[in-house]
Amino acid sequence: MNIVILTGAGISAESGLGTFRDKGGIWSRYRIEDVATPEAHARDPAGVHAFYRMRREEAAKARPNAAHTALARLQSDRRHRVTLVTQNVDDLHEEAGARPLHMHGRLKGALCAACGHRWPAPMEMDETTPCPACGERTARPDVVWFGEMPHHLDEIDAALSEAELFAAIGTSGQVYPAAGFVEMATAYGARTVELTLEPSGAPFDERRLGPATETVPHWVTELLD
Protein backbone atom coordinates (compact mmCIF):
# COMPACT_ATOMS: atom_id res chain seq x y z
CA MET A 1 0.00 0.00 0.00
CA ASN A 2 1.18 3.54 -0.74
CA ILE A 3 0.98 5.49 2.52
CA VAL A 4 1.79 9.12 3.27
CA ILE A 5 2.10 10.13 6.91
CA LEU A 6 2.35 13.68 8.21
CA THR A 7 3.56 14.22 11.78
CA GLY A 8 3.50 17.36 13.90
CA ALA A 9 4.56 18.50 17.33
CA GLY A 10 2.02 16.27 19.07
CA ILE A 11 4.01 13.12 18.30
CA SER A 12 7.06 14.49 20.12
CA ALA A 13 5.15 15.96 23.06
CA GLU A 14 5.31 12.68 24.97
CA SER A 15 9.09 12.74 24.52
CA GLY A 16 9.14 16.01 26.46
CA LEU A 17 9.23 18.48 23.58
CA GLY A 18 6.73 21.33 23.67
CA THR A 19 3.93 21.76 21.17
CA PHE A 20 3.30 25.12 19.56
CA ARG A 21 -0.37 26.09 19.56
CA ASP A 22 -1.79 24.25 22.56
CA LYS A 23 -2.37 25.99 25.88
CA GLY A 24 1.10 26.58 27.33
CA GLY A 25 2.71 25.83 23.97
CA ILE A 26 5.75 27.58 22.54
CA TRP A 27 3.75 30.30 20.77
CA SER A 28 2.01 31.22 24.03
CA ARG A 29 5.45 32.06 25.51
CA TYR A 30 7.23 33.53 22.49
CA ARG A 31 5.98 35.76 19.72
CA ILE A 32 6.41 34.26 16.26
CA GLU A 33 7.56 37.60 14.89
CA ASP A 34 10.34 37.74 17.53
CA VAL A 35 11.96 34.35 16.98
CA ALA A 36 10.69 32.64 13.82
CA THR A 37 10.93 35.03 10.89
CA PRO A 38 13.80 36.26 8.71
CA GLU A 39 13.00 39.79 9.92
CA ALA A 40 13.45 38.73 13.55
CA HIS A 41 16.87 37.28 12.74
CA ALA A 42 17.90 40.47 10.96
CA ARG A 43 16.64 42.64 13.81
CA ASP A 44 17.80 40.58 16.81
CA PRO A 45 20.13 37.74 15.78
CA ALA A 46 21.31 37.19 19.36
CA GLY A 47 17.76 36.69 20.61
CA VAL A 48 16.85 34.33 17.77
CA HIS A 49 20.02 32.28 18.27
CA ALA A 50 19.33 32.06 22.01
CA PHE A 51 15.84 30.71 21.31
CA TYR A 52 17.13 28.00 18.97
CA ARG A 53 20.04 27.17 21.25
CA MET A 54 17.46 26.50 23.98
CA ARG A 55 15.46 24.32 21.59
CA ARG A 56 18.57 22.34 20.54
CA GLU A 57 19.37 21.69 24.19
CA GLU A 58 15.82 20.45 24.84
CA ALA A 59 15.84 18.24 21.75
CA ALA A 60 19.20 16.71 22.71
CA LYS A 61 17.63 15.41 25.94
CA ALA A 62 14.58 13.88 24.25
CA ARG A 63 14.28 10.27 23.20
CA PRO A 64 11.93 8.62 20.68
CA ASN A 65 8.68 7.31 22.10
CA ALA A 66 6.45 4.39 21.12
CA ALA A 67 4.81 6.39 18.31
CA HIS A 68 8.15 7.17 16.65
CA THR A 69 9.21 3.54 16.97
CA ALA A 70 5.94 2.25 15.50
CA LEU A 71 6.24 4.51 12.43
CA ALA A 72 9.82 3.38 11.88
CA ARG A 73 8.60 -0.22 11.99
CA LEU A 74 5.87 0.56 9.45
CA GLN A 75 8.28 2.34 7.12
CA SER A 76 10.67 -0.62 7.19
CA ASP A 77 7.95 -3.12 6.21
CA ARG A 78 8.46 -4.12 2.58
CA ARG A 79 4.73 -4.64 2.00
CA HIS A 80 4.13 -0.90 2.18
CA ARG A 81 5.65 2.15 0.55
CA VAL A 82 5.64 4.77 3.28
CA THR A 83 6.52 8.43 2.78
CA LEU A 84 6.97 9.97 6.22
CA VAL A 85 6.72 13.76 6.24
CA THR A 86 7.32 15.74 9.41
CA GLN A 87 6.76 19.34 10.41
CA ASN A 88 9.04 18.74 13.37
CA VAL A 89 12.61 19.99 13.50
CA ASP A 90 13.78 17.39 16.03
CA ASP A 91 15.50 14.17 14.96
CA LEU A 92 13.36 11.72 16.94
CA HIS A 93 12.09 9.96 13.81
CA GLU A 94 15.68 9.32 12.70
CA GLU A 95 16.69 8.17 16.16
CA ALA A 96 13.86 5.63 16.03
CA GLY A 97 15.15 4.34 12.69
CA ALA A 98 12.79 6.12 10.26
CA ARG A 99 13.62 8.20 7.18
CA PRO A 100 11.49 11.35 7.26
CA LEU A 101 11.25 14.33 4.94
CA HIS A 102 11.71 17.43 7.11
CA MET A 103 9.40 20.10 5.72
CA HIS A 104 10.59 22.72 8.16
CA GLY A 105 14.28 21.89 8.42
CA ARG A 106 16.22 20.56 11.40
CA LEU A 107 17.48 21.98 14.67
CA LYS A 108 20.75 20.14 14.14
CA GLY A 109 21.42 22.07 10.96
CA ALA A 110 23.08 25.42 10.30
CA LEU A 111 22.61 27.52 7.17
CA CYS A 112 24.71 30.38 5.84
CA ALA A 113 22.45 33.27 4.91
CA ALA A 114 25.18 34.59 2.59
CA CYS A 115 26.14 31.60 0.43
CA GLY A 116 23.55 28.94 1.29
CA HIS A 117 26.06 26.41 2.65
CA ARG A 118 24.67 23.89 5.16
CA TRP A 119 26.55 22.14 7.96
CA PRO A 120 25.84 20.52 11.37
CA ALA A 121 24.94 23.19 13.89
CA PRO A 122 27.17 23.43 16.97
CA MET A 123 25.19 23.57 20.20
CA GLU A 124 26.58 27.04 20.94
CA MET A 125 26.04 28.61 17.51
CA ASP A 126 25.38 32.35 17.58
CA GLU A 127 25.55 35.44 15.36
CA THR A 128 29.37 35.38 15.41
CA THR A 129 29.68 31.79 14.10
CA PRO A 130 31.51 31.86 10.72
CA CYS A 131 30.35 29.85 7.73
CA PRO A 132 32.91 27.07 7.08
CA ALA A 133 32.49 27.61 3.31
CA CYS A 134 32.66 31.38 2.80
CA GLY A 135 33.77 32.64 6.21
CA GLU A 136 30.92 35.15 6.54
CA ARG A 137 29.40 35.53 10.00
CA THR A 138 25.87 34.98 8.75
CA ALA A 139 25.02 31.60 10.31
CA ARG A 140 21.37 30.91 11.08
CA PRO A 141 19.42 27.82 12.13
CA ASP A 142 18.55 25.63 9.14
CA VAL A 143 14.83 25.79 9.90
CA VAL A 144 12.01 27.13 7.78
CA TRP A 145 10.69 30.35 9.27
CA PHE A 146 7.28 31.89 8.71
CA GLY A 147 7.25 33.48 5.27
CA GLU A 148 9.75 30.96 3.85
CA MET A 149 9.07 28.02 1.53
CA PRO A 150 8.97 24.57 3.15
CA HIS A 151 11.26 21.84 1.84
CA HIS A 152 10.42 18.78 -0.31
CA LEU A 153 7.07 20.06 -1.61
CA ASP A 154 7.48 18.48 -5.06
CA GLU A 155 8.37 15.13 -3.53
CA ILE A 156 5.46 15.35 -1.10
CA ASP A 157 2.99 16.23 -3.85
CA ALA A 158 4.20 13.28 -5.92
CA ALA A 159 3.73 10.93 -2.94
CA LEU A 160 0.24 12.29 -2.24
CA SER A 161 -0.75 11.77 -5.86
CA GLU A 162 -0.07 8.04 -5.48
CA ALA A 163 -1.28 7.62 -1.89
CA GLU A 164 -3.92 5.06 -1.01
CA LEU A 165 -3.86 6.12 2.64
CA PHE A 166 -2.98 9.48 4.20
CA ALA A 167 -2.51 9.89 7.95
CA ALA A 168 -1.94 13.03 10.01
CA ILE A 169 -0.52 12.49 13.48
CA GLY A 170 -0.23 15.10 16.21
CA THR A 171 -0.65 18.17 14.02
CA SER A 172 -3.01 21.09 14.59
CA GLY A 173 -3.95 21.42 10.94
CA GLN A 174 -3.49 25.19 11.08
CA VAL A 175 -0.25 25.75 9.17
CA TYR A 176 -0.23 25.65 5.38
CA PRO A 177 0.72 24.05 3.11
CA ALA A 178 0.66 20.98 5.40
CA ALA A 179 -2.88 21.78 6.54
CA GLY A 180 -4.04 21.27 2.96
CA PHE A 181 -2.54 17.80 2.54
CA VAL A 182 -5.74 16.03 3.63
CA GLU A 183 -7.75 17.78 0.90
CA MET A 184 -5.04 16.96 -1.64
CA ALA A 185 -4.96 13.31 -0.60
CA THR A 186 -8.75 13.10 -0.78
CA ALA A 187 -8.75 14.65 -4.24
CA TYR A 188 -6.24 12.03 -5.37
CA GLY A 189 -8.50 9.27 -4.03
CA ALA A 190 -6.78 8.31 -0.77
CA ARG A 191 -8.52 7.25 2.42
CA THR A 192 -7.62 9.63 5.26
CA VAL A 193 -7.18 9.22 9.02
CA GLU A 194 -6.29 11.62 11.82
CA LEU A 195 -4.59 10.45 15.02
CA THR A 196 -4.59 13.22 17.59
CA LEU A 197 -5.57 14.35 21.06
CA GLU A 198 -7.95 17.01 19.76
CA PRO A 199 -9.67 16.83 16.35
CA SER A 200 -8.48 19.48 13.91
CA GLY A 201 -11.84 19.93 12.19
CA ALA A 202 -10.35 19.01 8.82
CA PRO A 203 -12.31 16.58 6.61
CA PHE A 204 -10.78 13.20 7.52
CA ASP A 205 -12.54 9.92 6.83
CA GLU A 206 -11.59 8.57 10.24
CA ARG A 207 -10.37 9.95 13.56
CA ARG A 208 -8.61 8.19 16.40
CA LEU A 209 -8.37 10.32 19.53
CA GLY A 210 -5.82 9.78 22.26
CA PRO A 211 -2.11 10.02 23.06
CA ALA A 212 0.14 9.23 20.11
CA THR A 213 2.00 6.60 22.14
CA GLU A 214 -1.27 4.66 22.34
CA THR A 215 -3.08 5.35 19.07
CA VAL A 216 -0.13 5.11 16.68
CA PRO A 217 1.24 1.70 17.75
CA HIS A 218 -2.28 0.23 17.62
CA TRP A 219 -2.89 1.69 14.16
CA VAL A 220 0.46 0.45 12.86
CA THR A 221 -0.18 -3.03 14.25
CA GLU A 222 -3.50 -3.14 12.39
CA LEU A 223 -1.80 -2.17 9.14
CA LEU A 224 0.95 -4.74 9.55
CA ASP A 225 -1.46 -7.52 10.54
TrEMBL record:
NAD(+) binds at residues 8-27, 87-90, 170-172, 212. 2 residues (Tyr-52 and Arg-55) present in a large hydrophobic pocket are probably involved in substrate specificity. They are important for desuccinylation activity, but dispensable for deacetylation activity. GO terms for cellular component: cytoplasm. Residues 1-225 form the Deacetylase sirtuin-type domain. This is NAD-dependent protein deacylase. It is found in: Cytoplasm. Coiled coil: none annotated. Belongs to the sirtuin family. Class III subfamily. InterPro entries: DHS-like_NAD/FAD-binding_dom, NAD-dep_sirtuin_deacylases, Sirtuin, Sirtuin_cat_small_dom_sf, Sirtuin_class_III, Ssirtuin_cat_dom. GO terms for molecular function: histone deacetylase activity, NAD-dependent; NAD+ binding; protein-malonyllysine demalonylase activity; protein-succinyllysine desuccinylase activity; zinc ion binding. Its main location: cytoplasm. It catalyses: N(6)-acetyl-L-lysyl-[protein] + NAD(+) + H2O = 2''-O-acetyl-ADP-D-ribose + nicotinamide + L-lysyl-[protein]; N(6)-succinyl-L-lysyl-[protein] + NAD(+) + H2O = 2''-O-succinyl-ADP-D-ribose + nicotinamide + L-lysyl-[protein]. Its EC number is 2.3.1.286. The active site is at H104. Substrate binds at Y52, R55. Keywords: Cytoplasm, Metal-binding, NAD, Transferase, Zinc. Zn(2+) binds at C112, C115, C131, C134. Its cofactor is Zn(2+). NAD-dependent lysine deacetylase and desuccinylase that specifically removes acetyl and succinyl groups on target proteins. Modulates the activities of several proteins which are inactive in their acylated form. Binds 1 zinc ion per subunit.
